[in-house]
Here is the input.
Amino acid sequence: MSWEVDAEHPYKYGPGGLCPIELGDRVANRFIVLRKLGYGGFATVWLVCDENRRHGRYVALKVVSADWSNDAKFESTKVVDPLRGYERDNGSPGLFILELERVFHTSRNGRHLCQVFPVLGPALVSLNTSDCRLYPVFVRDFAQQLARAVETMHSLGVCHGDLTPSNIALRLAHPLDSLTEEQLDEIFGPPEIQTLEFFFPETPSPAPDYVVLSVDLGRLPSNYLTTRLCIIDFDHAFSSRNAPKQLSHIPHQYLAPENIFTLTNGPPADVWALGCILYDLRYPMPIFQDLMGGCPLGTALRICEMLRNLPREWMEFPFDDSYPVHEPLQQGIEYTTLDDYRKSDGFNLDFEVGEIREPQRPVSTSETESGREWLCLSIPIDWDTTTRREFKAQNLKPIGKDDATLFVDLLGKIFDSNDQRRITAGQVLAHPWLKEPSQNLSNAGPAASPV
Ligand SMILES: Nc1ncnc2c1ncn2[C@@H]1O[C@H](COP(=O)(O)OP(=O)(O)OP(=O)(O)O)[C@@H](O)[C@H]1O
Here is the structure.
């Protein structure tokens, strides 16, 4: 059965899978579930009211799939100790959001790790989409903050391993604790749900009766939001000295080529993902989004079409079922290679960057506007499905020539297929495109001043 709802796939519920949670439930005898904040491949994240008020009235509770809750990765938080130390020694700048506490909750699907986090603002993924475009006034500042955060993380010997726009969020100017639940309802509107009766006719079902759609944190009044970014979700982080040799967990569009072809992980792969995110901040579709429905082969093909000159052994590397084969080849299986698929359809970085169109920020801002109005322009989109990457949108200005030239230069240095030659996060930070004086954010809106 197809699933087009922006929520976790129902089949993630089952023995060992996600924890069935409904609005109003009490989790771990303590947390009352108010709203959904998000979901990922391994967890659902909820806005909950903590009856113990240990970290304030409202916190974010990440409830992990039962099978993953026993995984050694989740059991150890040692890898991120250097980040915890950095936060502690620098007056909690809030660059890296680490769990405040962990508890366990048992459901009919198993025993779930529940991680407590402070509530944050919207994730970057929701700010630059096909129908809402981030004002460029924020883009370079976000890019600088991100490059600095990644440089700091790498200097502390930690690799994130899953850097995507879903794992970068805006921080809140102040906690939501002074808001009543009724006020939260007014801000977010009625909860949106999707019933699951067709998926789970059996009783008792391993799933809740319905899945909940995530609230749009951009609906918070703009004075709750800051333009300060933080990195979240260190579940796949590892020490640079002990990088795992395996296909990364990162969504396929963000896979670095050396990971696909040699299973190499490390700081350069984070920098590759950083480059993808910088492009995501300016265009509503990932630069290496493939047309094969999201698979390593599709990403490799896009990389190959865009960058050319991949090493010959990569062009001949065997894929089975769209995944790279790193084990000995077996007889009787027909493997495919990039050489089999490759067609020269003229994509390159110049072309892709030339497609960028950005909205102009209105001069005046009202006190009552939502965070989303403050940060992004909503645009009516008329998709031209024949050319896939072409948008017909009003009020958007093409990227300037000098901007494009510098941006292509930066992306070219990040998207070097040779990970040893690829620039570091520190070099990204020093690149002229990021060095350009950032526009004066103090004029950008009510919440932009440091808190
Ligand atoms: N503290 C928070 N405050 C507000 N929203 C949050 C918070 N933590 C997570 N979210 C939202 O929930 C989403 C999923 O969270 P997270 O990335 O931690 O889950 P995951 O299952 O580990 O995902 P992944 O598939 O990346 O491993 C985030 O993209 C974000 O939108």
Q: What stands out?
A: Residues 386-391, 440-451 have pLDDT under 50 and may be disordered. The longest helix spans residues 136-155. The CA atoms of residues 87 and 93 lie 6 Å apart.
